[in-house]
Design brief:
The complex is a heterodimer. By secondary structure, chain A is of the alpha/beta class. Chain A has one domain: 3-Layer(aba) Sandwich (Rossmann fold), CATH 3.40.50.2300. Chain A is built from 4 helices and 5 strands, in the order E-H-E-H-E-H-E-E-H. In chain A, helix 3 links the parallel strand 3 and strand 4. Chain B folds into 2 domains: 87 residues; 127 residues, Histidine kinase-like ATPase, C-terminal domain (Heat Shock Protein 90), CATH 3.30.565.10. The longest helix of chain B has 48 residues. The chains are: A alpha/beta, B alpha+beta. At the A-B interface, helix 1 of A face helix 1 and helix 2 of B.
């Protein structure tokens, strides 16, 4: 079975690199980018099975990015990671779609469980 | 000051304090998240090494540097939070205005970075030459002006904050590269007028922007 292809999007470069490496060590194919625009560009070049994104990023915000990903890649599951709790600055994420939340910092095993649940694999 | 206005100032001052502490705690959490992953990666690599896969020294160096960087980052945020908090509990203490302005610009930088806007702070006065009390209100007034300029700023813009104590009484000038339109300033004017009143200062809108825009805002102390 080919490895799951994961795209990580977070403006903290060290976070993205370390997490991508940890996922790679666990048998995933993980790519990381630090902006929403880079994420959209990468997704137009390569197919991903799932994206993991932070909500608060400079430039294209996480919620705008979710809307765009939903539009261009409606079948790709999304996992939202955030430093906040479930409510972000009192705002509800508008774009519709099934995604899971993880509050940073998280245990990588929780992320892996969320990845498998999101893509329906084990 | 009317009861209504007093309540408004009280609420907005609390909101300002809350916003600053929330910004800082959010950044600290980001730094902790990076530390969490770097520590986790170190653990993963250690497990791999126990299974016979050597860890390249360069990778260890990179992780160690990353950990050090994030610890320093967290330390800087905690220092800022500590110092900023003391501006509230030492409300009447005399504080150098240049340092207070630099501090609030540093804190506002977190907000500006989210819009990819640069905040540039400069002091045209000898350090500690001007001391003020009610520094929390000074910082709040400068912050409100920065927010008005930020509302009209776009990615790549710079907002300049200048402190000077000559000519005349000390002043802080906030300049947005796209000006500060009346519409952007309007929501901030009620609280700004109360704040400058409390500070025995004035708020000047320097004309020169396009259309109905101010090129800059100046908070000028009435006393030297």
């Amino acid at each position: 079975m080919p490895p799951l292809r994961i795209l990580l999007i977070d403006d903290e470069e060290d976070f993205v690199q370390a997490l991508a490496e940890r996922l790679t060590l666990r048998g995933f194919e993980a790519d990381g980018v630090t902006t929403g625009n880079d994420a959209l560009a990468r997704m137009r070049q390569k197919e991903f099975d799932l994206v993991v994104l932070d909500l608060k990023m400079p430039g294209l915000s996480g919620s705008d990015l979710i809307a765009q990903i939903r539009k261009e890649h409606p079948r790709v599951p999304i996992i939202v990671i955030t430093g906040h709790g479930a409510v972000v600055d009192g705002e509800t994420i508008v774009p519709a779609g099934p995604w899971r939340w993880l509050v940073k910092p998280f245990d990588i095993e929780m992320l892996i469980q969320a990845i498998h649940e999101s893509v329906g694999s084990e | 000051m009317s009861d209504h206005l007093r309540r408004d100032v009280f609420e907005q001052a609390l909101a300002f304090f809350g916003r600053m502490t929330a910004l800082l705690s959010h950044e600290m959490k980001n730094a902790l998240s990076v530390l969490n992953e770097l520590g986790g990666l170190l653990g993963d690599l250690s497990l791999s090494a126990q299974r016979g896969r050597p860890i390249p020294a360069a990778q260890l160096d990179k992780i160690a540097n990353g950990i050090q960087k994030q610890v320093q980052r967290c330390d800087a945020y905690i220092k800022r939070l500590h110092h900023f908090s003391h501006n509230t509990d030492s409300f009447r203490a005399l504080v150098p205005l240049d340092a207070a302005v630099a501090e609030i610009v540093q804190l506002s930088q977190i907000l500006a970075a989210r819009k990819k806007v640069t905040l540039d702070v400069e002091s045209h006065a000898p350090p500690q030459a001007t001391v003020v009390d009610k520094v929390f209100f000074w910082q709040m007034a400068v912050y409100e002006c920065i927010c008005a300029a930020l509302d009209n700023a776009q990615e790549g813009d710079t907002i300049a904050v200048r402190f000077a104590n000559h000519p005349g009484p000390p002043f802080v000038r906030i300049t947005g590269s796209r000006g500060i339109p009346e519409t952007a300033l309007e929501p901030y004017l009620p609280i700004l007028s109360v704040l400058v009143g409390e500070l025995n200062a004035t708020l000047e809108q320097i004309s020169g922007g396009e259309g109905k825009s101010a090129a800059a805002l100046v908070i000028r102390s009435a006393t030297a």
